Structure formats: C-alpha cells, structure tokens
C-alpha cells in the first residue's frame, strides 16, 4: 500500500481532477448577442390559478413566464387584468414620469449637483404597476430602483430632489446617499445600502400586521444579485413559517453591477422557482409587461390579504443603464444586449397597447413627454432654491448629532459642541 | 442612586427572586402594560426558553405575542426591525450571545441606524435579550462577552444587570426605551451571585440584597450607574458577574474601595465615574470580555482624559485573555480573584 493521498497531498491517479466552475456571461463588450435560446412564451398561454390555490400549484408559473402584452400590442389571456383605459393611461404616465425624472437627475449628477444617482431605465413597469396593484397604505420595503412607487403614490418630486441634493430641505437631513428615500406617510420604508436587509424586515412588518389583526400587507423588492444574501433565505423561511401576508419580489434585471445573474445561481433555476423549496407560491413574470406585472402583484396581494400566505415574484427584466452614475457597463457587457433585449421597452409596450386599442396616440404621447419634462424641470428649479450638494445650503451642523438616539447623550452633546467650534474656526462668516 | 430607586419602587413589597425570575417578571409586567410588546426567539414559546426566562408567558399572552422562531438570528432581528417599524415593541431573545453574529448586520446596520437614516420617521424600539459570559462550562460557543462590539456602534444602547433587582428594573426601562437596546444577561449569576471561587458551593440570591425584588412595575433609568459600595482607596469599574467577584476580592483584602456597577455601558454614566475617581485617585477596571479593544479600553481612556490630574497610579485593567473561551481551562481564562487581587495589590502599593 502506498502513502495515503490525505497525507501525501497527491491526487489519486485513477480519478479525473475536480474542476471549479466559474460562471461566465454569454456576451462581453463587442460580442454579437443571440437571444434565440431565451425561452419566451407566447402571451396568454399560462393558466391563472385561483388565489386560494395550494402553493404547489404555482410551480408551472415559476419556471415559465406570465405575459399579457403580445407583439401585436394586444392584451390576452387569463392574466389580463382588464384595466380600464384611464388606469392604463395613469400607469403609462407614472412610468414616463419616472423615466423623465431619472433622465433629469442623471444630468444633474453629471453637472455636479449631487454625488450619485441610480436610474431604473427599463424597470419602470415593475415599480409603477406594483404600486397601482397595491393599496395605497400597504407597506413597501424597497430597494434603490423603485422610485416609481414613490412617484405613483404622489410623493412630491421636489422632496425627492431635495433628498438627492442633500440640501437644507432634505427631509432626511442630508444623511443618506442620494435616492435612499424614506417616506413613512407614503408607506415607503427607509432604503438601506446593505443589500437584502429589507426582505426579513418586510416579513416582520407583515407579521406585525397579522398580530394586530390589521388588513394591510407588506411587500419588498430586491435585485436578483442580492437574492444570494442570507437575508433572502431568512425572509423566505420566516414568511413560510408564519404564513406572513407579504409579497416578496426579486427584480431579475440580469446584472448586479458587473456580475451577471449567473453569480446568483440563475444558470441552475429561475429565481421564482426558489419559492417551491419553501412551500410558498411563486410567479415569474415578464417585467417589461406592465399588465403582467400588475396582474401578478394583484394576484399575490389578494392572496396575502386573504390570509392565504406569501408569494415570491420574479420580475424578468433588463437593467438598460449602468448600475449607477459610478458605473460603466460598456466595460463588461455587450451594447447589443440592451438594443436587442427581446422583451422590449416597458413604456413603449404599454404606449403601443394603448394606441392599438384606440385610447392613445403618438401625438398625445409626445405632448405628455414634453409636459412631464417641464414638470420635472420646474420641480428641479424649486429644489435648487434649497441648495445643491456641497454648495453650503445644508442642514445645521447640530442636526448631525440628532436622531442617533431619541435623546442626546452627553458624549454626543460634547461632540456637537466640538463640531460647532470647528465650524467657527474654519468658516467664521458662517451663519445658520 | 438610592433615592431614585426609592422613588420608583413606590414601597412595593419585595420578594427574593433569582435573576431569571426577575427577568420573567419584567417581561410579564411589560406585556401586561403594553399590548405592543411581543417576544420571539428560539424555544421561547411553549417551552419558555432554554433558561426559562419566558416561561409561562405564551400561556398567559397567547401565541400571537410570544412565539418560537426558526434558528435564524438574521431573521429574528430582521423581523423585529420590521415589527418595530410597524409600531410594535419586540423583545427578541438570542439564545446565547455567541449566536448574535448572524444577526449582527440587522442590528448594527439596520436597527441602530433606522432613526438616524430616516431622520426620525422610523424607529426601532427593540430590546434584544441575550445570556452572555462564561463560567458554566459552555465552551467557546456559549461563553463569550461581545458587549464591546455593540458599544462601538452608534445608535445602540448596551445594558448589563448584576442583580435580580436591577435586571427587572433595567429590562423594564429597556423595553420602554424608544431606541434599540442590547440587554446582556450574565448567565453565571442567573441563579445566584458568584464570587469567582468556582469550587465553593453555589450561593443563592435569597441571602443577597440584590435578590430582593419589588412586585409589579418599577424601572431603573438607563445611563445611571449604581454605587455598590462607597470607599476611598480606589474606584473599581465593573458590570455583570464581575461586580460580585470584585466585592469578594476587596472584602478578602480589606481594601476600602468604591465599587461602581456601570449597569449601562452606552449611554455611560460618566458623571458618577468621574466623581468617584477624582475622590479616590485610583482606578481599576474589570470585565470578563477579551482585553484588546474591550470596553475597558474605552473606560481607561475616558478616566485618563477626565481625571488625569487626580490619578495617583496607572489605571489597571483586569480582563479575560485574548483567546476564545477554552472549555477545559475556563477557570484559567476567567478573570477571577487571583488576577483581580494582583491588580488591587499593585494599585495599593502605588
């Protein structure tokens, strides 16, 4: 007998050496894109089970994809929410406003008015349609690409911009990174930079609502990348165990900064399919189809409200822009990916649907876009009166020490005095 | 301290309780007073917790308010944050402080900063209870004292009682507090005070003044230390189990030291500390946690900054060693009477 391989460290000669598999996206910069392998079903094909169905009955919906709007711009099938034209136009308007807002704020960042911005281009249907399918007082635990929810709920644009500029009117006193809004009165939880932390919190909120016999439900959004965080699994376990009235959303936009969805396990199964292992309902939906998103959220929200349990929804979409203003996607992915994304642009698809049913026109759309750009511009001008980042119009120094605790303890009181003394030395002319 | 406690007790009749019973009473009192108080954690429901701190509460308040949780500290604390955002006052139990780490991000990045990052829109009135410290042959996964991790985090309060009387009053105050509180329970003294002589028979809280616990509601304000014993020879700063070890050592040595039980590490009662060190001129700091970057380092720096011209000797620090807690050698790790005694002798010589 030879020396044991454990001791010698030499592999056994008669077995193939093991290999580590490191996922690699199909396309890199310059590559031609071929989406023919992507399995995109025809709209209207999938059944819509009863909201009270067993979670296991949703299995086919987790591996397939719920779609309502077809290439012919018609809405078809059992998942068609049959919204009236007025609601469709409202949805379209909120999506377009979200995009106009993003465009303006992106430019503002490039002009040095703030440090950072994150657009949600290509994902507008997800936040806006979900917001419209929920009740106004349902609680949302968002990630950083759901500005469409605040916009849909009528949160003032000026307040959003004040937050982005961290100016003296910023409700968050200039403490948070731009776009990390908090709006309690609008059912919008304060955004964390630590990913996926909001998932178990949403479940906890939903549990509290159930404990108190309330009728409100909670929902939360994370990206597919952060579904790899332990918090995702904590949330799924808690949601399942306590049958929490919660809708958990994974926005699968294909990219987590430069890491493609394969690094969150997308090559093995869909994100929606993870619901099955926890025994909760799951839906996979075309995230660029506002009607499909609306229908899925409405189904899940009704289920939660009926004490029938939680749902995991995967929104299959594409992050059309960079991760943030600090990112350059051309350095890691093919430009063709966006151009040829087979599920199109969510705003265009809804617009074309409204035109196809005779409830909209290209002229009306162009007028609306102009009007929305003006609205955003006016809000920007209004917010700029309160200052832009780094130009001195911020909250008083003392506010830096407030809200660490309900009351100011002695050590923070001493440090606040120090900060104000330093300010007087550095900027004697300063007044606040 | 004495007047303040007399005021809050309303002359309620007292009984002898051990620390577990006192904690159980505090939870009971608060659950009865405030329907928003809920308890969650591993084994806390039907069974009443592995240390029985929540015994009987599920039967009394129902499964909606006292319930078991999955073995998932991230989920326990994360759900508690969401419950607090809703308006409840969750009191999660982490079965051993050693297991708080999987929930650490939810505590330090979320609960601790919720009020700040939302400018007061959302708050996290959560009290995380967790047994900590060694001396029960718990090995390296049931013995740690991680309090310094939490004192380093802006926005968290850290509370540690040393008697059943304080445990009840402080826990009630912690649950009433609108900030997140880490409430560490020194499990070595759950059933009786411990003087560090591990091979002597255990003592009972029945014969200890701190075991006299008033009935009903009373609270001990956070941020107020307790002068355990007045003295002139030196100031000893300690908390939790170490209060009792220090008392035993000083009695043995016949040293007239002033012992201060900090009770709350953040916010710290700096006034009581400073007044005492200015009076005695010497300072001994004792804790069970590992030494490097332990809370003793912070205390030492504060005393040096504030009392330097009153100091007659270098500040002494007695702590656990910078190793994990060793199972078979836990009494060699534990900062017992010998280690503390040497430090006392050094201070008395100067």
From TrEMBL, chain A:
Cofactors that this protein relies on: thiamine diphosphate
Entry's Gene Ontology BP terms: branched-chain amino acid catabolic process
Enzyme Commission (EC) number: 1.2.4.4
Molecular-function annotations in GO: branched-chain 2-oxo acid dehydrogenase activity
Pfam families to which the protein is assigned, alphabetical: E1_dh, OxoDH_E1alpha_N
SUPFAM superfamilies membership: Thiamin diphosphate-binding fold (THDP-binding)
Coiled-coil blocks: none
Residues in 2-oxoisovalerate dehydrogenase E1 alpha subunit N-terminal domain copies: 16-55
Record region (Disordered): 1-36
Keywords, comma-separated and alphabetical: Oxidoreductase, Thiamine pyrophosphate
InterPro entries: Alpha-ketoacid_DH_E1_comp, DH_E1, Oxoisoval_DH_suAlpha_N_dom, THDP-binding
Principal EC category: oxidoreductase
Record-annotated Dehydrogenase E1 component domain positions: 93-388
Family: Belongs to the BCKDHA family.
This protein's name: 2-oxoisovalerate dehydrogenase subunit alpha
Organism: Novosphingobium pentaromativorans US6-1
Automatic annotation (TrEMBL), chain B:
UniProt-listed Enzyme Commission number(s): 1.2.4.4
Keyword Ion transport: no
GO molecular function, one term: branched-chain 2-oxo acid dehydrogenase activity
Domain Transketolase-like pyrimidine-binding stretches: 17-192
One BP annotation, GO: branched-chain amino acid catabolic process
InterPro entries tied to this protein: THDP-binding (IPR029061), Transketo_C/PFOR_II (IPR009014), Transketolase-like_Pyr-bd (IPR005475), Transketolase_C (IPR033248)
SUPFAM superfamilies the record matches: Thiamin diphosphate-binding fold (THDP-binding), TK C-terminal domain-like
UniProt keyword list: Oxidoreductase
Top-level taxon of origin: Bacteria
Pfam family, one: Transket_pyr
Enzyme class (EC, first level): oxidoreductase
SMART domains recorded: Transket_pyr
Cofactor(s) required, per the database record: thiamine diphosphate
Protein name: 3-methyl-2-oxobutanoate dehydrogenase (2-methylpropanoyl-transferring)
Organism, scientific name: Novosphingobium pentaromativorans US6-1
Lineage: Bacteria, Pseudomonadati, Pseudomonadota, Alphaproteobacteria, Sphingomonadales
